[in-house]
Design a protein that fits this description.
Bound molecules: D-malate
Strand content: 15-25%
CATH architecture: 3-Layer(aba) Sandwich
Number of helices: 11
């Protein structure tokens, strides 16, 4: 459905009924990366999966889009949907960076947290430099070089060899994304604050999920985060890389189901 928020109109998939789960996609993707989770959890929950500002079918804004701005957009989407009860947040990678801002800005809107393949630390100077180089390349050559750089880093060896359909789907999504949206998010990620200090203050049940071959946000880093969040558990997904919910949906859905059942979050 279309939802008008602040200065833009967003595409949001909303299905099912019950406790709301808000799915926040990664960069530079759209809400369809969650299709397997939306099919599974819409049976017993209300699933809400927006295309973030600048991605998928949502409107784009130029300049910089901060993680803070995305979090305000999500808050506005929940308002427009008349969701008053706290939600289960579920974000992947950039969706995780946005989740830290959402938790800071709207703590009362959060009931539990699921974070896939993400990190709490800010970008290193080297990572910021790489993002600036990518912006220059995109501005001259468009989105094709993004696929060349990112695809090998997003998936496990097994997925790159035997799960061609998801690799192709992500490639197509990236190629169809407007360069201004990608550039605005790259700037926003480069300037995001460090959220490591937030971890020990999180008072909500938290599940961390990470692909065992994740090159971008590796298992050790996520284990370190799990150690700092008081009520956190971590599941490592065998055979998956950075895109674990797409690469190994059954394992990821099982981990989420067990977490939700254990904490009576239905
Ligand atoms: C993502 O998957 O959202 C990106 O890899 C995040 C990033 O570039 O830091």
């Amino acid at each position: 459905m279309r939802i008008s928020i602040n200065d833009i109109s967003c595409e949001v998939e909303v299905r099912g009924s019950g406790q709301p789960i808000l799915f926040i996609h990664g960069f530079p993707l759209d809400h369809t990366m969650w299709n397997s989770q939306l099919d599974c959890f819409s049976q017993s929950y209300q699933v809400i999966a927006p295309d973030l500002r600048g991605f998928g079918q949502s409107h784009v804004t130029t300049g910089t889009v901060s993680m803070n701005q995305y979090s305000h957009d999500l808050n506005e989407i929940l308002d427009q949907l008349n969701i008053t009860e706290p939600v289960i947040l579920c974000g992947l990678s950039m969706g995780g960076y946005i989740s830290w801002e959402f938790i800071r800005n709207y703590p009362d809107r959060v009931k539990a947290i699921i974070l896939c393949d993400t990190r709490a630390a800010a970008d290193s100077p080297e990572a910021v430099g790489n993002r600036m180089k990518m912006i220059e390349t995109i501005q001259t050559e468009g989105t094709a070089p993004v696929t060349t750089v990112m695809l090998p880093k997003l998936f496990s060896t097994e997925s790159l060899k035997n799960r061609q359909e998801i690799v192709n789907k992500i490639k197509e999504t990236i190629l169809n994304t407007l360069t201004v949206g990608i550039v605005a998010a790259l700037r926003g990620m480069a300037e995001r604050p460090d959220s490591t200090e937030l971890l020990s203050s999180i008072q909500k049940p938290t599940l961390l999920i990470v692909g065992e071959e994740d090159q971008l946000t590796p298992v050790d880093e996520m284990q370190g985060m799990a150690n700092q969040i008081p009520d956190a558990e971590i599941t490592v997904i065998k055979g998956a890389g950075h895109m674990s919910p797409m690469e190994c949906p059954d394992q990821v859905n099982e981990a989420i189901k067990t977490f939700l059942d254990t904490h009576n979050l239905e």
